[in-house]
Amino acid sequence: MKLFAIKSDSTGDKVLGYLLYYEKTGQFYIELPGDTDEWETPLLLSSFIKRGQRTVNSYWSRVWVQQRIVPPDRQNISAILKENGLERYDEFALLTLAEGRCAQDDFYIEPSEETNLPREIRDRFSIRVEEAVPLADGQLLVFFRNGEARRCDMKKLCGGRRFVPILQSGELFSALQIQTDGYGITWGENLDVDAGRLYREGADVPLSIRDFRSYAAHCVTDTAGACKLLKCSRQNISDLVKRGKLHPIHASAAGALFLLSELRERLWQ
């Protein structure tokens, strides 16, 4: 992860925000300190401060970056890339080459270290998402990096028409992904809920991630484990599933996972 301080020529050495870039996923995130005033920051970022948000999601962080670099559809883009020693269009490379400067304002970026982050931002990192388990009726069980868990009613947290198809389809709802470094959960571009909001607005659950992992270790098994417990072949397991006598909690081309409780019931029947 690369870290940069966002500064402005008009505010001296004050850090107005921090830009984080994750090289493996190519994603950007912006963290805004609590003492940054909305009038000091770029317009796009100030809108987050007005709404009481200090973490800018990956979609809008990338938009901010894109506003500061030459667009990929520029007529002479090939010549620009060649002149700067780039073989292909690279948002991060273009941003750092210009130190984040653009003609529209006096903001710029400079390299920083994680140890320079204010305590309040490092505290935000402790409530990033570790695991997220879809439940029935639009509920989500979320485990955080600090070991706490929250039950989140996503019908209340996912506002706007764009979330309606997701909330109306159990399959789409269950297809959620955890964002890079646990910044939140997402169902696609700009269809996300940040970790801070999940933590603040979710209902506290007296569970920890260790409890969750212990449950998985003791209560779930794969196809090989099912064969061993029921003393049968993989073909028998497949037949039971096809006939609706056995219900995998997860299935893929590589195999399936089963609840040990259901397998034990078959032994007792």
Order of helices and strands: EEEHEHHHEHEEEHHHEEEHEHEHHEEH
Strand content: 15-25%
Strand order of the largest sheet: 4-3-2-1-5
Helix content range of the residues, please?
25-40%
- Which value, in Å, is the CA radius of gyration? 24 Å
Q: State the distance separating the first and last CA atoms.
A: 54 Å
User: How many strands?
Assistant: 15
Number of helices: 13
Shape: elongated
Structural domain count? 3
Residue stretches low in confidence (pLDDT < 50, at least 5 long) are none
Round the mean pLDDT to the nearest integer and report it.
91
Largest sheet geometry: 5 strands, antiparallel
Structural class: alpha+beta
Q: What is the compact description of this entry?
A:
With 269 residues, the protein is α+β, with helices and mostly antiparallel strands.
For the structure shown, list the relevant keywords.
269 residues; NE0471 N-terminal domain-like; 24% strand; 13 helices; alpha+beta
What does this 3D model show about the protein?
The structure is a single chain. The chain is an alpha+beta fold and 269 residues long. The protein has 3 domains: 117 residues, no CATH class; 82 residues, NE0471-like N-terminal domain (NE0471 N-terminal domain-like, 2-Layer Sandwich), CATH 3.30.2020; 56 residues, no CATH class. Helix content is 36%, strand content 24%. It contains 13 helices and 15 strands. The strands form 4 sheets. The chain has a 5-stranded antiparallel sheet with strand order 4-3-2-1-5. Strands 6-7-8-12 form a 4-stranded antiparallel sheet. The longest helix is centred in the C-terminal third of the chain and has 11 residues.
